[in-house]
Amino acid sequence: MSRERATLAPYAMHSEASRGRRYAESPHPYRGPFQRDRDRILHSGAFRRLAYKTQVFTGDLGDYHRNRLTHTLEVATVARTLARALRLNEDLVESLALAHDLGHPPYGHAGEDALDECLANHGGFSHNRQGLRVLELLEQRYPEFPGLNVSAEILDGHAARIDKHFDAGNLIEVQVVEAADSIAYDTHDADDAMELGLLTLDELLEIPLWRQARDQLRESYRNLRGKTLRRALLHTLIDWQVGDLVAQAERGIALHNIRSAENAKAAPTIVRASSPLLERKRELEQFLFDRVYRHPDVLRLREEAQTSLRAMFAGYVQRPELMPERFLERVPHDGVERTVCDYLAGMTDRYAEREYGRLFAGKDERH
């Protein structure tokens, strides 16, 4: 606590001000509460399974591209950089970043959309809500309580992501993770798409954000070509966006006279891209949506994944006894549909493929 008082900004979230955990625990002799949260998340089964869950592209398209785990680690790295520059609580930021995708099902957003469709009459599905279920209920690592019993600030930060219109009312640490996530997927999805041959660098250089990054790079390097140029552009894009966010946040802190974590929650969102950069990011995201996320190869694999998940959902609902015992025990409390969804959402891509082939392949999903 004394280290935090000496190093953190007054507007950062200090551990001693935490609202604590749902199930009271004694303080650890040498780890602060947010460090303990980080360790619990990192050692959870849900975190390890992210290594075999789709980010955007499945393994059928190659091995280079990001999976849900490498994306999470990249978000955590960017978020920690922002946190250090702004003198925020790095343990809290890293915990939030490591937890931000724990609720993702197999097959990325294709899997999320399929499960949301399956649960249309039972409350729907979103990976952010599922992440809270993982943190509060589904992870069974300790005998004293369900879930990971993380600090209230971790749960609050995760809950803030449920609202698709993410805006003010959040700790600056929460805002940092949201901004870092945006940087990571905008930049790295383009990199993966180029490696897989879905895009060329020349096509991306037609997009203003990438063209401006190239112009910045030419001030120091004029003769870069091919993959060397591509990697240098990725570094430039990330550094540019991080620098822009730091500058914008510092202006917002001064403008709104933010002097405490509670001040920060009452102020408008301050960790956001400047207006010119935000417009460039929107142009890039629209381009990626049109050219990458709707690419015929991606759509084909998306449809295959959704077909298998719908069949598995219907099959397990009809025969819940096929699920492990710990899920069967939840059926009387949560209902069979939600419980089946919990089971499916926890699967990796390859486990889902194996179980689909073993139990449901070739069967009409309507029966």
Description:
The chain has about 375 residues and is mostly helical. The protein is about 60% helix and about 0% strand. It has a single domain, classed as Hypothetical protein af1432 (Orthogonal Bundle), CATH 1.10.3210. It is built from 19 helices and no strands. The radius of gyration is 22 Å and the shape is flat. The relative contact order is 0.13. The mean pLDDT is about 90.
Write a concise synopsis of the structure shown.
With 367 residues, this protein is mostly helical. The protein has one domain (2-360): Hypothetical protein af1432, CATH 1.10.3210.10.
Alpha-beta classification: mainly alpha
Q: Count of DSSP helices?
A: 19
Distance from N terminus to C terminus (CA atoms, Å) equals 58 Å
State the name of the first-level CATH class. Answer: Mainly Alpha
Q: Given the C-alpha coordinates, what overall shape results?
A: flat
- What value does the Rg take, in angstroms? 22 Å
CATH topology: Hypothetical protein af1432
List the SSEs and their pairings.
Elements: H1 2-7, H2 33-42, H3 45-49, H4 68-86, H5 90-99, H6 108-118, H7 127-138, H8 152-160, H9 172-195, H10 201-204, H11 208-218, H12 226-255, H13 261-266, H14 275-293, H15 296-318, H16 325-328, H17 331-334, H18 336-345, H19 349-360
Helix pairs in contact: 2-5, 4-5, 4-9, 4-12, 5-8, 5-9, 6-15, 9-12, 9-14, 11-12, 15-18, 15-19
